[in-house]
Amino acid sequence: MNAMVQNFSDPGTLSVKFGRKSNSLENDAWPFASSPRRREALSDEPDRFTANIPASANHAEKIFDTLIALKVETSKVAMHLSIAARNRIFAELDYILDVETWDEGDYLPDIESYKRFLKWIIFTGDTTWTSLGVDDGGRILVAWVREQQTMTANFDEVVRWTKRADMEGAIQISLGEFTLTHFARQSNAFLGE
User: Fold this and answer.
1) By residue range, what is the domain housing residue 46?
2) pTM for the whole thing?
């Protein structure tokens, strides 16, 4: 699914961008295939690389700079990820941060939210997610789609999750809000794994 828009009566409209649907870690796309070769200034702090996106940067430059900042965060923990997992994450980021799919007013992915996602994936080792996404506030989303259940997680200060399951013809919907550590301990159980 490339993009998904859900309308909720109380909170208003929530725009959500998702990457490609992929159940496999195998991805033969080169992680940088769709990225232009450009790099903007990064922080001067030697142990911290955070995006320093100039206010004068145009829309495409801001998107690219955000993409690079997310990949730098991934590279900081690359030793904890398999090459296939890292390439899959990079391919999802390349797909999500395609200049053609972003409007000027959209919030770009939040680096802190992305770091929380990386902490979760390292703690759990879960690479069974179907797709990454970004909500209308820039927070990282993860989706799992199974034969009879769907689950999403929003990596904010706390992890907000939803689960929809079809159990013997009855639809069951649950949702919750956990600390990152608690969600990491429970997420595999939610998926029955």
Assistant:
1) 13-19+39-190
2) 0.71
